[in-house]
Amino acid sequence: MTHVATHDTAQHPIRLYLVVWGWLFVLSTCSYMVDYFHLQGHLRYSLILLFMVLKAGLIVAVFMHMAWERLALVYAILLPIGAVLVFVAIMVLESDYTLLSRTLHPGLL
Amino acid sequence: MVQISLRNEADEARQSAGLASIAADLSSDQRAFKNVSWGKAMMWIFLLSDTFVFSCFLISYMTARMSTTVPWPNPSEVFALEIGGTSFPLLLIAIMTFVLISSSGTMAMAVNYGYRRDRITTAALMLATAVLGAAFVGMQAFEWTKLIHEGVRPWENPWGAAQFGSSFFMITGFHGTHVTFGVIFLIAIARKVLRGDFDTGRRGFFTSRKGNYEAVEIMGLYWHFVDLVWVFIFAFFYLW
Fold first, then answer.
1. Which residues contact residue B212 at a Cβ distance below 8 angstroms, ignoring those fewer than 6 apart?
2. Which of A63, B131, B210, B211 has a CB 3.0–4.6 Å from the CB of B201, allowing a cystine?
3. How many Å lie between the alpha carbon of B110 and the closest alpha carbon of chain A?
4. Residue at A74 is within a domain
5. pLDDT of B11 over the 60 cut
6. What is the pLDDT of residue A4?
7. Which range is least confidently modeled, B97-111, B141-155, B195-209?
8. Does A108 have pLDDT greater than 50?
9. How many domains does chain A have?
């Protein structure tokens, strides 16, 4: 951990960034293909999420140097994101309820 | 005695690993993020707050889309581009995505060359990033114009749920604004790099402080974040 904490990002070879750049291109093409080939249903949504998470991970870890950042900072930034997921869950329940009300009582809302 | 205990604490923070290192950092004296400069830590905290802003936009879009009984316009058709009689779904959006990813690539390399104190290459890569960012905003302006001509408004559109327009303008507008400000700051920092401010220790106009090449990395954090937000907008608004 000690050597990671003092890791000098200046020592990275340019090749690392080119490789990640290439992967981001490949992943973006893949997510575009999901739409191009009209994939539907669970396959479509899981592939969209998969490519999204992989791209976001590469950008944060390598381009933003999060992989070499001090652990205290990494957790201070990444843990609060969990609150967003909780918010998403709350609003999914809320939307379902609103949709149900609108379906049961058309014209009321 | 006090001296000794302080030194022990510092040693502890340096040597411990994993969760113990976080506990040691957060309970230590004066600063929590030991080897992180205040500039970088503050940029990260700003980006976290910005994450919440964009999350709120995307969540409100999700709520509108999930709760409406009116069909949602099909983004694949709405954002299709016709070239020579053939309709390509999401073509412009795909090009915008590749442009923004490329700008992130040039930015990452600019940061690396900055730490090697290669001022010309750093400034050139930053300006390339700015050009790609400006191209992105230009394409977004084209897209807005096209949609407005087709009758999309924040309160109505020809294809379905009214919230489509408000979500679209709010989310892409806020993102486009971030890109625009990013381009302006990229040019400002590139100018400093090119002039050699970080080599000669020239003081900043607003801050009267000497800067260093970490400014390029902090600028990069912001720029990669803008690219990161686009990844989520692309997935949730355009592909879903």
1. B198
2. B210
3. 10
4. no
5. no
6. 43
7. B195-209
8. yes
9. 2
Of the candidates A52, A92, A46, A41, the residue with the CA atom closest to the CA atom of residue B234: A52
Among candidates B22, B47, B115 on the partner chain, residue whose Cβ is nearest the Cβ of A71: B22
pLDDT single digits (tens) B54-84: 999 999 999 999 999 999 999 988 898 888 8
A76 touches chain B (CB under 8 A): yes
Q: Which domain holds residue A108?
A: 79-109
> Across the interface, do B21 and A14 touch by the CB < 8 Å criterion?
no
For residue A20, give how far its alpha carbon lies from the nearest alpha carbon of chain B (Å).
8
pLDDT at B232: 96
* Per-residue pLDDT reduced to its tens digit, B125-178: 999 999 999 999 999 999 999 999 999 999 999 999 999 999 999 999 999 999
Quick check: A87 and B48 CB within 8 A? no
Question: Using CB atoms, which residue from B36, B52, B231 is nearest to A84?
Answer: B52
Our CA dihedral for B25, B27, B30, B36, rounded to 10 degrees, sits at 20
Q: How many CB atoms lie within 10 A of CB B15?
A: 12
Contact A63 B224 (CB under 8 A): yes
Is A8 in the same domain as A57? yes
CB burial of residue A69 (10 Å; 0-12, 13-18, 19+): buried
If you count residue pairs, one on A and one on B, with CB atoms under 8 Å apart, how many are there? 161
How many percent of chain B have pLDDT more than 90?
72
Give the Å distances, CA to CA, from B184 to B129, B181, B191, B195, B230: 11, 5, 11, 17, 19
Q: Which of A19, A22, A18, A44 minimizes the C-alpha distance to A31? A: A44
Q: What domains sit in chain B, N to C, each tagged with a CATH number? A: 1-35 (no CATH), 36-239 (1.20.120.80)
Tell me whether residues B239 and A65 touch, CB distance under 8 A: no
User: What does the pLDDT average to over A84-107?
Assistant: 94
Q: Give, for B97, the enclosing helix (H) or strand (E).
A: helix B91-115
